[in-house]
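Lecture notes, unit on binding sites. The following record was shown on slide 14. It pairs a sequence with iron/sulfur cluster.
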Amino acid sequence: MGDKLNFAFYWTAGCGGCEVATLDIDEKILDVAELANIVLWPIAMDFKYEDIENMDDDNIDVSFINGAIRNTEQREIAELLREKSKVVVAFGACACHGGIPSLGNFHNKDEIFQEAYVDTISTNNPDNNLPTPKTEVAEGELTIPEFFDTVYKLDDLIEVEYYLPGCPPSTDLIIKAVEAIANDNLPPVGSVIASKKTVCDECDREKKEKKVKEFRRPYEVDVDPELCLLEQGIICCGSATTGGCGANCPTVNMPCRGCYGPTSEVADQGAKLLSAVASVIDSDDQEEIAKIAKDILDPGGTFYRFGMSNSLLKRKKLG
Ligand code: SF4
Ligand code: SF4
Ligand code: SF4
């Protein structure tokens, strides 16, 4: 390969796990350093936004953006990176589908601020002050980014070429993506860099006819290490979830939570999961079905844990 590429890494609304996953590729990070100059990576090095603003358009070969978009600063930097990049990769579940932050779409800004700054016992806020974009102080005007009512996935706001799903993406997939870039062997624009199969397809557990009389949480079950978890009454999202992780969670007796997002054949991951779970309930009696369904704690969080921004619902209706 001739001249080095330019890579940017940026973190918006997320937990930082995707940044750690990037470092988890261990010595392969040296291959990245050999392949590319890193022109922005705020978690690891000191950069200024104006360094990026001063670049020519398309100066960055690939921007890897992890996190959802939930305030004006995140939107601005995502738009700036879009302008300066040939390729943008939505990196991780939050960027691809909204991820855990998009559970905020079951509420609105006022409800979230009330919980976070007023009702919580962990904040000492006797005057019930709430964040405001502009505040006048003796020294002048202070500004902070404006918080949106709705959490967006990255491609709601900017064009994205590739999707690297997972919470966080597995190191194998990160390496696969970097190798594809290095070898100029990227798939068609719009591709999800994962598997075409579902997690169930990758899972070695024995699958029989599923008949469930009660749903239980993993800690309540003496888990059979060979049998499908859903058949043991543990809600497992493998059937509606894109593979590529090698069924990581079921392999260690934990159910799939759906972090790789819906497969290409699924329009709404939560609805598909709801239908999969409904189909295994072993009863024709309405009362009994209702009783079994009550075992599912937090259905919204269970079925849309990683993808509320990517769902047909998108968010709870704003009142
Ligand atoms: S995808 Fe998961 S690991 Fe990555 S930022 Fe979001 S919550 Fe964190
Ligand atoms: S539902 Fe879960 S445990 Fe069962 S086969 Fe699918 S991934 Fe494996
Ligand atoms: S098994 Fe499911 S939750 Fe676990 S890493 Fe794979 S896609 Fe994510």
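Take-home: Residues 108-148 form one domain.
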